[in-house]
Write a structure and sequence with these properties.
Alpha-Beta Plaits, EC 2.7.4.6, globular, Nucleoside_diP_kinase_AS, 13% strand, Nucleoside diphosphate kinase, alpha+beta, 11 helices, 4 strands, disordered N terminus, 235 residues, single chain
């Protein structure tokens, strides 16, 4: 018994070592938890910080917030828009003032440089009945008789143009009806000053483009052909 009691310092030492190891493990565990917590905070802060630099998602059809959508391939919307573009026809007419002022070549050049295809062209003296049919939507307007007199006062240049989005694009090339409000660089913005002498007419819709071409051109006067530069304009 005395021998056992005499060895009590050793027992005390073992207890101390065990206590020290326990404390060390606890300390390590606390450090790990602190490290994880700090890492999480840093990750959270970093994520919030980097969120400001994320690319805009409105160009894509899928949303990263939806787990199902995330698995779908991203589709770039402009490609969808391009795939829906259609070849159209439009009727462009250089009015008597444009012919008398020698602007025919200038106006044709603008459409050619844009890349549209000229499929019909003729110099034509417009009869009154054709002018009235062309402008029949304006028949109730007080300026209608004056408009008819103006269009039939001299030869006009009739043109049929073809291309992707040609109707809207031609309207932009021509400019506003009132030349004083037309943008510089447009035909009317550069070459005209008054609505009653605004040089050129352009169809306002694909449907009217087809209707007006059929109205101003006889069968066989519109040519079907492929420009040599076509592969350099359209993919």
């Amino acid at each position: 018994m005395a021998a056992i009691l005499g060895g009590s310092p050793a027992v005390t030492s073992l207890s101390a070592i065990h206590s020290t190891q326990t404390t060390t493990r606890t300390s390590r565990s606390s450090c790990c938890l602190l490290s994880y917590a700090t890492s999480d905070k840093l990750n959270l802060r970093t994520s919030r910080h980097l969120a400001a630099f994320q690319p805009p998602s409105h160009l894509f059809s899928s949303s990263p917030s939806n787990a199902i959508t995330r698995n779908k391939p991203l589709i770039f919307l402009p490609h969808l828009v391009a795939s829906m573009e259609q070849v159209e026809e439009t009727y462009i007419m250089i009015k008597p003032d444009g012919v008398q002022r020698g602007l025919v070549g200038e106006i044709i050049t603008r459409f050619e440089k844009k890349g549209f295809k000229l499929s019909g062209l003729k110099l034509f003296q417009c009869p009154q009945d054709l002018a009235e049919e062309h402008y029949k939507d304006l028949k109730s307007k007080p300026f209608f008789p004056k408009l008819i007199d103006y269009i039939t006062s001299g030869p006009v240049v009739c043109m049929a143009w073809e291309g992707i989005g040609v109707v809207a694009s031609a309207r932009k090339l021509i400019g506003s009806t009132n030349p004083l409000q037309a943008e510089p660089g447009t035909i009317r913005g550069d070459l005209a000053v008054q609505t009653g002498r605004n040089v050129v007419h352009g169809s306002d819709s694909p449907e009217n483009g087809q209707r007006e071409i059929a109205l101003w051109f006889k069968e066989g006067e519109v040519c079907e052909w492929t420009p040599a530069q076509a592969p350099w304009l359209i993919e």
